[in-house]
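User: Is it possible to get a 3D structure for a protein together with its bound compound? The compound here is S-adenosylmethionine. I've pasted both below.
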Amino acid sequence: MLLRPEQRAKLDSGKDSEFYSFPRFVTHADKQFLDRLTHLYRKLLQPQTRVLDLMSSWVSHLPEELEFERVEGHGMNEEELAKNPRLDRYFVRDLNENPQLPLADSEFDAVLIAVSVQYLQYPDAVFHEIGRVLKPGGLAIASFSNRMFYQKAIAAWREGTELSRVELVKQYFRSVPGFGEPQAIIHRSDVSPLLQMLGIGASDPFYAVAARWQDMGDGNKAQEQS
Ligand SMILES: C[S@@+](CC[C@H](N)C(=O)[O-])C[C@H]1O[C@@H](n2cnc3c(N)ncnc32)[C@H](O)[C@@H]1O
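Assistant: Yes, that's possible. Here is the predicted structure of the complex:
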């Protein structure tokens, strides 16, 4: 087992479907974080491919100029998903109740999880499903910062440091045979803690972990070429 039962626990053990029953038309990270995420997608995703935006909402972080064959969305609130301009279609599912994705094998070139992986109680099962729906050579990218709905994040996340969370997400990938070695992309502000406390010059730290399904060797690894 990747996580012990106590590591999967949330402070709010109420149903996630109730927590997400009303839409939140907000963004969950600052502009600099979201620009970095879009920049990363621009570098790693290919046009005219199939993308699954898992744990999505009303906003898309996909580059506007990139056209895809299909963008499938998933989330917890239908009103939010209906407003997302990039989704061709979507489904609602509580992955903590049922981690299976109602999608065919090898359907997608990329699977994205933005600022949400901390809410998964059974990440091993969900990452297994991500591998199943990816085409050989397909890419999965999980991004996160230091913000969260604290009461809904799992204990393993809440109790970790920012860097131990990078390792945790790498472990999620490594727990599924078939993923290549995960790569981390990290941008942290070098502003002094005092200025950060005053809210001057600081931006949300950026973390992403990416891995390819059925890695084809070094030339095929996910790396940002910045
Ligand atoms: C902080 S929001 C991020 C949404 C979106 N990815 C974004 O970048 O704006 C967290 C999202 O995680 C997803 N989520 C939370 N708990 C979930 C659960 N139990 N099952 C499936 N998805 C869940 C919901 O889609 C929710 O909108």
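The longest helix spans residues 31-44. The chain has seven helices and seven strands.
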